[in-house]
């Protein structure tokens, strides 16, 4: 692991690292473009140091999804007001370095303020360019008491994204306002990075992990846990039908008031994307709290969703996801969202129009101009009919030609961005069963039920052969199917864009020797247990 303190060293490291990875691909005779993408993928975790298990969970996620993981450690003076704790903020670089090395981080970038172009003199005289998020997003919540804080965050995060140019950057949900602002920043400035939100990590008491927890005594940590208890009480009220903002806030206030030493700064119900205040939760709301315990300021939040549950089923090709998902949706009265069919439809259209599979520019144009529709069908074998540009392609997208090319299409950034955006719009209403390669880890990371369905290569090849026979397709040998499936597994698990992986909170089901109905019943039983 390298410790880098200058921008020049960082750029040199990234250039060299990328070259080494590309050379390794060539030396290994792995010439597949998707694999070479993965081997140069970079993940960034911006921090201010004082690392804890929350940061380590971000590193773990980044390690799973990228070849190179960079952690930045920079106590940003721009986000501290004159009366805040900039001087005494925890600075534990040596301990942080050890934790990063143990977690498999490739490099730490730990610059000084001067290296980042914001020396004390330039701050006082405002002699540097700043990034200013929308005023409506920075004027409420923490922005009321921390004037200039989010401008400072946005400025340094933008600089870090420009310097590292990562494929993904990882942030915790605990800082919900910051997360929403950074997502908006990336969208508005068209920055080519995927912002990955990761769940809040907590101490056994429920207290959200934070570098500032180091300021608290053992007794104060026990007292501070009341913040999360208050949020939990509101969540319980929400689950039995309370939707009004004032009532939910009152529930939190009542719980927090039981600890006299905690001074509440705000409790608000807001839209987690726009940060606008909500009178009641109609789709999704974030209940956020900030409070002081002595001189220590603490924040926390919880997401409240008023929607039917989502079941996300991931797994490798040929594991039986589609068949199982259809049965689960039928039994539970949910909608089957056939995301794989969407990628197949785009693949079919590209082949029909004679577009080369590796012509990403042409395919980007295609996917952003086409219209895909999924409509219910009475046919139990094909319960969802698939239309693209008003053409019914339900059967056409299941041919061997489409199947052999769909991974290459699905790995393209523009395709996934366009289709995931559409899927997430459908997902806001909930009540879905969706299956694919990254449904639980990327498309619906907040799905209530996550399943990773898998099977051996030989089992999947046998099932695929049977599917071809039922559809009247030409006979293919088991040996050829096994080779195709193994190759597709490799491509799906090593692609740069949303690689196939089991979500951390997913239940794995090995389906060898099980019928689709038996697997479906396992999922239904789990669903009913979770939601009872």
UniProtKB/TrEMBL annotation:
<keyword id="KW-0808">Transferase</keyword>
<feature type="domain" description="Cytidylate kinase">
    <location>
        <begin position="311"/>
        <end position="528"/>
    </location>
</feature>
<keyword id="KW-0436">Ligase</keyword>
<comment type="pathway">
    <text>Cofactor biosynthesis; (R)-pantothenate biosynthesis; (R)-pantothenate from (R)-pantoate and beta-alanine: step 1/1.</text>
</comment>
<dbReference type="GO" id="GO:0006220">
    <property type="term" value="P:pyrimidine nucleotide metabolic process"/>
</dbReference>
<dbReference type="GO" id="GO:0004592">
    <property type="term" value="F:pantoate-beta-alanine ligase activity"/>
</dbReference>
<keyword id="KW-0566">Pantothenate biosynthesis</keyword>
<feature type="binding site">
    <location>
        <position position="79"/>
    </location>
    <ligand>
        <name>beta-alanine</name>
    </ligand>
</feature>
<dbReference type="Pfam" id="PF02569">
    <property type="entry name" value="Pantoate_ligase"/>
</dbReference>
<dbReference type="InterPro" id="IPR027417">
    <property type="entry name" value="P-loop_NTPase"/>
</dbReference>
<dbReference type="InterPro" id="IPR014729">
    <property type="entry name" value="Rossmann-like_a/b/a_fold"/>
</dbReference>
<keyword id="KW-0418">Kinase</keyword>
<dbReference type="GO" id="GO:0005524">
    <property type="term" value="F:ATP binding"/>
</dbReference>
<feature type="binding site">
    <location>
        <position position="79"/>
    </location>
    <ligand>
        <name>(R)-pantoate</name>
    </ligand>
</feature>
<keyword id="KW-0963">Cytoplasm</keyword>
<dbReference type="InterPro" id="IPR003721">
    <property type="entry name" value="Pantoate_ligase"/>
</dbReference>
<feature type="binding site">
    <location>
        <begin position="172"/>
        <end position="175"/>
    </location>
    <ligand>
        <name>ATP</name>
    </ligand>
</feature>
<feature type="active site" description="Proton donor">
    <location>
        <position position="55"/>
    </location>
</feature>
<dbReference type="GO" id="GO:0005829">
    <property type="term" value="C:cytosol"/>
</dbReference>
<dbReference type="GO" id="GO:0036431">
    <property type="term" value="F:dCMP kinase activity"/>
</dbReference>
<feature type="region of interest" description="Pantoate--beta-alanine ligase">
    <location>
        <begin position="1"/>
        <end position="302"/>
    </location>
</feature>
<feature type="binding site">
    <location>
        <position position="178"/>
    </location>
    <ligand>
        <name>(R)-pantoate</name>
    </ligand>
</feature>
<dbReference type="InterPro" id="IPR003136">
    <property type="entry name" value="Cytidylate_kin"/>
</dbReference>
<comment type="similarity">
    <text>In the C-terminal section; belongs to the cytidylate kinase family. Type 1 subfamily.</text>
</comment>
<dbReference type="GO" id="GO:0015940">
    <property type="term" value="P:pantothenate biosynthetic process"/>
</dbReference>
<feature type="region of interest" description="Cytidylate kinase">
    <location>
        <begin position="303"/>
        <end position="532"/>
    </location>
</feature>
<dbReference type="GO" id="GO:0015949">
    <property type="term" value="P:nucleobase-containing small molecule interconversion"/>
</dbReference>
<dbReference type="InterPro" id="IPR024894">
    <property type="entry name" value="Pantoate_ligase/cytidylate_kin"/>
</dbReference>
<dbReference type="Pfam" id="PF02224">
    <property type="entry name" value="Cytidylate_kin"/>
</dbReference>
<comment type="similarity">
    <text>In the N-terminal section; belongs to the pantothenate synthetase family.</text>
</comment>
<comment type="function">
    <text>Catalyzes the transfer of a phosphate group from ATP to either CMP or dCMP to form CDP or dCDP and ADP, respectively.</text>
</comment>
<feature type="binding site">
    <location>
        <begin position="48"/>
        <end position="55"/>
    </location>
    <ligand>
        <name>ATP</name>
    </ligand>
</feature>
<protein>
    <recommendedName>
        <fullName>Bifunctional pantoate ligase/cytidylate kinase</fullName>
        <ecNumber>6.3.2.1</ecNumber>
        <ecNumber>2.7.4.25</ecNumber>
    </recommendedName>
</protein>
<dbReference type="InterPro" id="IPR042176">
    <property type="entry name" value="Pantoate_ligase_C"/>
</dbReference>
<dbReference type="InterPro" id="IPR004821">
    <property type="entry name" value="Cyt_trans-like"/>
</dbReference>
<keyword id="KW-0547">Nucleotide-binding</keyword>
<comment type="function">
    <text>Catalyzes the condensation of pantoate with beta-alanine in an ATP-dependent reaction via a pantoyl-adenylate intermediate.</text>
</comment>
<feature type="binding site">
    <location>
        <begin position="209"/>
        <end position="212"/>
    </location>
    <ligand>
        <name>ATP</name>
    </ligand>
</feature>
<keyword id="KW-0067">ATP-binding</keyword>
<dbReference type="InterPro" id="IPR011994">
    <property type="entry name" value="Cytidylate_kinase_dom"/>
</dbReference>
<keyword id="KW-0511">Multifunctional enzyme</keyword>
